[in-house]
TrEMBL record:
<feature type="domain" description="Chalcone/stilbene synthase N-terminal">
    <location>
        <begin position="63"/>
        <end position="202"/>
    </location>
</feature>
<dbReference type="GO" id="GO:0030639">
    <property type="term" value="P:polyketide biosynthetic process"/>
</dbReference>
<protein>
    <submittedName>
        <fullName>Type III polyketide synthase</fullName>
    </submittedName>
</protein>
<comment type="similarity">
    <text>Belongs to the thiolase-like superfamily. Chalcone/stilbene synthases family.</text>
</comment>
<feature type="active site" description="Acyl-thioester intermediate">
    <location>
        <position position="139"/>
    </location>
</feature>
<keyword id="KW-0808">Transferase</keyword>
<dbReference type="Pfam" id="PF00195">
    <property type="entry name" value="Chal_sti_synt_N"/>
</dbReference>
<dbReference type="Pfam" id="PF02797">
    <property type="entry name" value="Chal_sti_synt_C"/>
</dbReference>
<feature type="domain" description="Chalcone/stilbene synthase C-terminal">
    <location>
        <begin position="213"/>
        <end position="344"/>
    </location>
</feature>
<dbReference type="InterPro" id="IPR011141">
    <property type="entry name" value="Polyketide_synthase_type-III"/>
</dbReference>
<dbReference type="InterPro" id="IPR001099">
    <property type="entry name" value="Chalcone/stilbene_synt_N"/>
</dbReference>
<dbReference type="InterPro" id="IPR016039">
    <property type="entry name" value="Thiolase-like"/>
</dbReference>
<dbReference type="InterPro" id="IPR012328">
    <property type="entry name" value="Chalcone/stilbene_synt_C"/>
</dbReference>
<dbReference type="GO" id="GO:0016747">
    <property type="term" value="F:acyltransferase activity, transferring groups other than amino-acyl groups"/>
</dbReference>
<keyword id="KW-0012">Acyltransferase</keyword>
Length: 355
């Protein structure tokens, strides 16, 4: 069995509220595109009230070279990763020498060696610790990391797995790119990170099952193109429609394969907050009340879309309520791909299955 023991989160220092973003958008876009009012309305209706950045907006706008941005990405990833590991180890749930596998996820920059190499040295993890960097799965990577940790713990039940999701989407914003996709990205994404510890010891959340669903012939719908000026975001406007038309059936098949879900229902829905329209679509297609997507909606409003770290923020939000019952987690990423997890929340030690 794989249990989630602890979730920690971290944010970079620069905070922007929605009014600041709109004022900045008006200043940058005026005279450069013919649809300024529509663009500002898109930003205003994104469902994001606050976001955090690793550098001020002016610094990012004034330094649009890939070399500068990737240097900031590397420095900031090490810093945020260090904050996550410090909080995890200071919580007392695990010691550095007890981590057997470290999984890192990120898609908003490039590092070789990956960020875990610096953190293993800094925190003196064991020299035989296993490493698994996941770099090209986008927003789905956080959920997929949880799934791979679940698989690993089935094979090595006495081990402990540490996941770090570190995303800095602000560094992918292209200063002179006025495509709708780039504006949508600016409206939705924020910088941030999350860490999760898993083991086979009884804990507050058990992973019951996982499933990946790949949508054929959709690689052009989401991702990045890389050029001299950096990452060029690809976000197809048909993504909410694809989720509505193609995702619900495999998701329901997964739900029907979970005996606990069939007999007891689903009490908690942990959807990746990819955007307001995505959450609206999932709510409507699954016939949910607004309160049932409140955790995802709150994360989107407070910090924006954090790519692979988002579902871990949603998980943390749910865990704060001391939940009980079944949970369905879902995230989407480039491919086009969906990752599903069946969860069981426990409010007390007596409620946790053992063995």
């Amino acid at each position: 069995m794989a249990y989630i023991q602890k979730v920690v989160t971290a944010l970079p220092p620069v905070r922007l509220d929605q009014e600041q973003v709109l004022a900045m958008g008006r200043r940058i876009l005026k005279g450069r595109i013919p649809f300024v009012d529509q663009a500002l309305k898109l930003i205003a209706n994104a469902g994001v009230e606050n976001r955090h950045l690793v550098r001020t907006p002016d610094e990012i706008l004034d330094n649009d070279t890939l070399s500068w941005r990737n240097e900031v990405y590397s420095e900031s990833s090490i810093q945020l990763g260090g904050e996550l590991m410090t909080r995890m180890f200071e919580s007392g749930v695990v010691a550095p020498e007890d981590v057997d596998l470290i999984i890192t996820t990120s898609c908003t920059g490039f590092m070789i060696p990956s960020v875990d190499a610096y953190l293993i040295s800094r925190f003196r993890l064991r020299p035989d610790v296993k490493r698994l960097p996941i770099t090209e799965l986008g927003c789905a990577a956080g959920a997929m990391a949880l799934s791979r940790a679940h698989d690993y713990l089935r094979a090595f039940p006495h081990h402990r797995v540490l996941i770090l999701a570190i995303e800095l989407p602000s560094l992918t914003y292209r200063t002179r790119d006025f495509r709708v996709a780039n504006l949508v990205s600016a409206a939705l994404f924020g910088d941030g990170a999350a860490g999760v510890l898993l083991s086979s010891e009884p804990g507050p959340c058990r992973i019951l099952d996982t499933r990946t669903h790949f949508f054929y012939d959709t690689p052009e719908m989401m991702g990045f193109d890389l050029s001299e000026s950096g990452f060029k975001i690809i976000l197809d406007k048909k993504i909410p429609g694809l989720v509505a038309e193609k995702f619900v059936e495999p998701a329901r098949a997964f739900v029907n394969d979970q005996p606990e879900f069939v007999t007891e229902g689903i009490q908690h829905h942990l959807f990746h907050p990819g955007g307001r329209r995505i959450l609206d679509t999932l709510r409507d297609e699954f016939g949910l009340k607004e309160s049932q997507v409140a955790a995802s909606r709150k994360v989107l409003a407070e910090v924006g879309n954090l790519s692979s770290a988002s579902v871990m923020w949603v998980l943390d939000e749910v865990l704060k309520t001391r939940p009980h019952g079944n949970g369905l987690m879902a995230a989407f990423g480039p491919g086009f791909n969906a990752e599903l997890l069946a969860l069981r929340f426990h409010t007390s030690a007596n409620d946790v299955p053992r063995g």
